[in-house]
């Protein structure tokens, strides 16, 4: 299918933004993933950065810019966040644990939607909370399906191993025991965009004394179903 709009510079800029949906990229990685000439990628990236549509992370890599979040919020058309509310409430009620959706922003994963357990011990993660990409089942999900170079970068100083991520890819879900915080367990599953890329992770989290040392055995099916519901909601919005 021809996705060209007939306006070359707009199409090339959109190609850059599409490539950055998968995560931070160096200039060389953008050239490789887009197939555009290096001078073209460099010129467009700088122009998009001027308008905050592209930013830079702490390693100097290109990332999606803060202006995109502002525009999505203003338009009220973020289907993932719109769909997340009822899905997370259903997941919370099915598991009895706090439920969240995380997106990756550079070196962080950010909670963009949350449904808290109403009573008892709970793992409280308010919307807007930034957590490390180096620990936790949501971080595992957001990293597991990245390309080889990004996978290696993400594993530096991570509390999980390549073997753990291979298991995530094989099962289709992740679990963690005390990785992010002592005594806290979690289970996460990927949310995919229309192209099949992982764009978010849906999670539950709570005390290990309740989730046990095998939280996936208890809740992987419910969490995976929530991931599939959100993936379908995102796909419908793009249709």
TrEMBL record:
It comes from the Bacteria. Keywords: DNA-binding, Transcription, Transcription regulation. InterPro entries: GAF-like_dom_sf (IPR029016), HTH_MetabolicPath_Reg (IPR050707), Tscrpt_reg_IclR_C (IPR014757), Tscrpt_reg_IclR_N (IPR005471), WH-like_DNA-bd_sf (IPR036388), WH_DNA-bd_sf (IPR036390). SUPFAM superfamilies: GAF domain-like, Winged helix' DNA-binding domain. Residues 7-66 form the HTH iclR-type domain. This is IclR family transcriptional regulator. Transmembrane segments: none annotated. It comes from Arthrobacter echini.
